[in-house]
Design goal:
The complex is a heterodimer of chains A (about 270) and B (about 200). In chain A, α9 links the parallel β7 and β8. In chain A, α1 packs parallel to α3 and α3 crosses α4. The longest helix of chain A has 17 residues. The model of chain A has no long low-confidence stretch (mean pLDDT about 95). Chain A folds into 2 domains: about 70 residues, no CATH class; about 190 residues, Rossmann fold, CATH 3.40.50.150. In chain A, strands 6-2-1-7-8-10-9 form a 7-stranded mixed β-sheet. In chain A, strands 3-5-4 form a 3-stranded antiparallel β-sheet. By secondary structure, chain A is α/β, with parallel strands linked by helices. Chain A is built from 9 helices and 10 strands. With about 200 residues, chain B is of the alpha/beta class. Chain B has one domain: 3-Layer(aba) Sandwich (Rossmann fold). Helix content of chain B is about 35%, strand content about 20%. Chain B contains 8 helices and 9 strands. In chain B, strands 3-4-2-1-7-8-9 form a 7-stranded parallel β-sheet, with helices on both faces. Chain B starts with a helix and ends with a helix. Classes of the chains: A alpha/beta (about 270), B alpha/beta (about 200). Chains A and B meet through α2 of A and β5, β6 and α5 of B.
Chain lengths: ~270, ~200
Amino acid sequence: MPDSHVDVEVRLLMEAIYAKYSQDFREYAGSSQKRRVLYALQKLDCDTISTLQSKVLHDPTIFQQLMQILTIPFSEMFRDPAFFLALREHVMPVLRTYPSLKIWIAGCSTGEEVYSLAILLKEEELLARTILYATDINPAVLEKARQGIYPLESLRHYTTNYQAAGGKAAFSDYYTAAYNAGRFDRSLVENVTFADHSLATDSVFSEVHLVLCRNVLIYFQKTLQDRALGLFHESLCHRGFLGLGTKESLDFSGYAEHFEPVVKQERIFRKR
Amino acid sequence: MTSTFAELTAAASHDVDLVVIGGSAGGVQALLALLQPLPSNYALPIVALLHMPEDRSSRLPEVFGYRLAMPVREARDKEPIAPSTVYFAPPGYHLSIEQDNSFSLSGEDPVYFSRPSIDVLMASAADARGPRVAGILLTGASSDGAAGLGRIKAAGGLAVVQDPAQAQVPTMPQAAIDHTAPDLVLPLNDIHTLLLMLGTPP
């Protein structure tokens, strides 16, 4: 199919954003990106993508708003409980053998997974000797992640997830409820560094024992997916672990041979 | 509603390389009736999306795998679409077709309370493959799919709707008929004949 004018305009918009703001969305998957841009036209009251591009270039606050639309939050605590149960049963026993641990949560969005993992580490008595890096390209979601405040109505669902994930305590022990929200215990994120990091443009910053990057690669084209996997591979220590989203796969990447499955069904891999 | 053999033949002259089928309530039965008689070497890829509770829809590839002659798989992110294969949309994600003829998944908000959404799948197929898509909408109790089928038709593809009078739940096919004039409104056995004709080059 030849490119429609919409495809051309989306591509130009991403070039403009990269040139002006150094945020690289140029190799994001085409169909979801196009839907997000068309949705942004409605939300930001623009008739055409070219109009949106002009506004984005001239007004950084419009770019900030567009950024919230282009990045898709898709997170809940202990999402896919079986994944966290598998982490607990198959990965924690190995991590326990290290005197100190480093973990990278790439694309942490609003932080649900950070608090989930911190709770898991605490119950496995590993939190005190772990440094966590929680990174995202979006400063607004990083700020939410730092705060760790989630609506009470979500917490009911998270409680069910937590129990299914093999939780050892009462979930409510980890947060303080007030004003229809729960604020998670600060001690959980004492050792967490929240930082701005782009899988598209930045490089490796530390050697880690475990990388979690769940439901991020689905928004990338193959070339960008491989760049991200390259960063994870480089960052991981000898025999380090990688956890992906439940419907993500290494099979269609250049890194299938570089990792072996540990719990295949839950997409937990180990560096060969 | 009945259609003449001439109408079917005319529709089958469409040069199609991808079939996308959506359905909701009653969809498992209808889809089985449609796909069970297809031969194992049926040429075209078929991408099926049925609205199901999340915990049950993950079993669709297994359920259909036992009953179909064609190979059946769950569509995976970035997987190139192979011919002669039935793919099911995995639960909890939107499924799209990309320009390079591969699948992609996404966690965008549900459409008509559904994720995966037929509208999202069909619109992406129309974008990626244009006139070479056949879209088929079956029985269902939702309006999901009407806009997507409209996109397939607008891109020059073939838009087919199960005859609401014969559908277990007529809402979905009727919504599609009201939204966009489909090329054909057919009972299941005629849709099956059309599939055979589309998959058998002259």
